[in-house]
Structure formats: structure tokens, C-alpha cells
Specification:
Layout: H1 9-23, E1 32-38, E2 41-46, E3 50-53, E4 56-58, H2 65-70, E5 77-88, E6 99-101, E7 104-108, E8 114-117, H3 132-145, E9 153-165, E10 171-174, E11 181-185, H4 195-206, H5 220-226
Parallel strand pairs: 4-11
Antiparallel strand pairs: 1-2, 2-3, 5-8, 5-9, 6-7, 7-8, 10-11
The structure holds flavin-adenine dinucleotide (FAD).
Length: 227
């Protein structure tokens, strides 16, 4: 896959966060516990406070189900744990392009390190612990794809939760005609890849512009009609 391009997920999220802070007040460390659409807006209750918003975007990944249910959406979003690791090969430039085979991949980074991805564990629930089993799977996959990695140094191992879905696509759109509550979740393995188009769809809806018909299959209202 020599034409593949890539980003560093942590750098991308840090950059987006910086841009958001230029125009928005960011409140961290407060889980939203309930949403209540009302005339002219939405009441948002967190662990610490109650906020009144003109619009709300439900975008809390694998944790979205209770908030979706609170606004009458039955889309099934669930956690799929993924573990990945970062290796420093003994000889730099061991690999020039992304290599993918049988759910495993090696991604060479500009600094010479190689990212090894990724497990998919449906049984872990919301756990993000690093396990021997998943680490062994990753390291043996790395060696299978590129035997020269046998002597590489393991720099980092991490785990996260993908927002899995039962319908085969994410849910992006307004929950009713007033567009007070917008949903963007269920991106499973592709949340970074789909971030620009997701942002574009959400912005189009939030600014009350007409949404191109090709995106309507992602809409929560269509889901409610077809399920
Ligand atoms: C190992 C691994 C490798 C991956 N590789 C890729 C890849 O190569 N390319 C790609 O496109 N995608 C990849 N993904 C998938 C990608 O990470 C997800 O699709 C993406 O993170 C989903 O984004 P999100 O914003 O919907 O959810 P998240 O990134 O999970 O963000 C949800 C946020 O909501 C917060 N939250 C949860 N509940 C509440 C609440 N009640 N109130 C307030 N906040 C709350 C959480 O703390 C979190 O910060 C990978 C995932 C893993 C685990």
C-alpha cells in the first residue's frame, strides 16, 4: 500500500483540541449523565452541573448508548477493545510502506519507529487493560510480517475502545427535525479516517444547511424508520 498516507492519532487529536479551544470553552472531567431535549434547546446534566445548550452533539464513542436511548435512538453501539504497540527496529528504514495482512498491519513512522496494529476484542467490555495474550498476538504478527523485527525494541503498548456498531456504518445526523440533538458515533475502526467527513456533516446540520442526500443513510431518523 505504497500510496497510503497516515497521521499520528495523538498529534491529530491534540491539534483539533487546540483549534476548538480558540472559539469554545472546553470543560473536561465531567461525564454527561443525562440529556433532556426541551423547547428551544437541550438540558445537559453532568456529574457536577446542569447546562442549557441550543444544540448537543452526542459523540462519546463506545459509551454513547445510554445518551442515545435518552433521546429515543435504539442504535446499538458497543465497545470493541483494540491493542496496538510501537517498535523501534534495530536498523532504521526496515520498512518504507504500510503492510497489511489478515487483520494485522505494520505502519512505518517518519522517526523510524513501526506501529503494530491491532487486536479486536469483543469480550473485554469497557476494559482497556494490556494483556499478555493480545500483546503476544501483536508481536507474533509483527514478526510474521517482517522477520527482521525479531530484535526490535518494544517502546510502547496501549489499548483503547472502538465504538462498534451492529448495522455496518456509523450514525451521523440529527435525531429530529429541529436538529437540537445531533449524533456522531459508531465509527468502529475508522474514526480518525472519517473525522473530516463527520465534522462536515455535523457542521452542515448544525448550521441548518441542506445535507446532500448521499449522507441520509447515516441518519438516526432513517434508522428509526427502517429498524
Ligand atoms: C488500537 C486502535 C487502533 C485504531 N486505529 C485506527 C486507525 O488506524 N484509523 C482510524 O480511523 N481509526 C482507528 N481506530 C479507531 C478510532 O480510534 C475510533 O474510531 C475513534 O476513536 C472513535 O472516535 P469517537 O470520538 O467516536 O470516540 P472516542 O475517541 O472513544 O472518544 C469519546 C470520548 O467521549 C468521552 N466520554 C465518554 N462518555 C462520556 C460522557 N458520558 N460524558 C462526556 N464524555 C464522555 C470519552 O472519555 C472519550 O474522550 C483505532 C482504535 C484502536 C483502539
Amino acid at each position: 500500500m505504497h500510496e497510503d498516507t497516515q497521521v499520528r492519532a495523538t498529534a491529530m487529536v491534540a491539534a483539533l483540541s487546540q483549534v476548538v479551544r480558540q472559539t469554545c470553552q472546553v470543560v473536561l472531567g465531567e461525564a454527561v449523565t443525562s440529556l433532556s431535549p426541551q423547547t428551544g434547546g437541550v438540558m445537559v446534566t453532568t456529574q457536577r452541573a446542569v447546562y442549557h445548550a441550543a444544540r448537543v452533539v452526542i459523540a462519546n464513542g463506545a459509551y454513547a448508548k445510554p445518551l442515545l436511548q435518552a433521546v429515543g435512538i435504539t442504535y446499538d453501539v458497543f465497545p470493541v477493545k483494540g491493542q496496538a504497540c510501537l517498535l523501534a527496529p534495530v536498523s532504521p528504514r526496515t520498512l518504507k510502506h504500510t503492510v497489511y495482512h489478515d487483520h494485522g498491519y505494520l505502519v512505518p513512522k517518519r522517526d523510524g519507529t513501526i506501529l503494530v496494529g491491532a487486536t479486536a476484542n469483543l469480550d473485554a467490555g469497557f476494559q482497556t487493560t494490556i494483556t499478555v495474550n493480545e500483546t503476544a498476538t501483536l508481536l507474533s504478527k509483527a514478526q510474521q510480517l517482517l522477520p527482521a523485527l525479531a530484535d526490535a525494541v518494544v517502546l510502547d503498548v496501549w489499548a483503547g475502545l472502538r465504538p462498534g456498531n451492529a448495522v455496518g456504518h456509523p450514525l451521523i445526523g440529527a435525531t429530529d427535525a429541529t436538529s437540537r440533538v445531533i449524533v456522531a458515533t459508531g465509527h468502529y475502526r475508522n474514526g480518525l479516517l472519517l473525522a473530516p467527513i463527520t465534522a462536515s456533516i455535523v457542521t452542515t446540520i448544525a448550521t441548518e444547511q441542506p445535507l446532500p442526500a448521499r449522507w441520509s443513510f447515516l441518519s438516526p431518523t432513517l434508522l428509526a424508520v427502517t429498524s
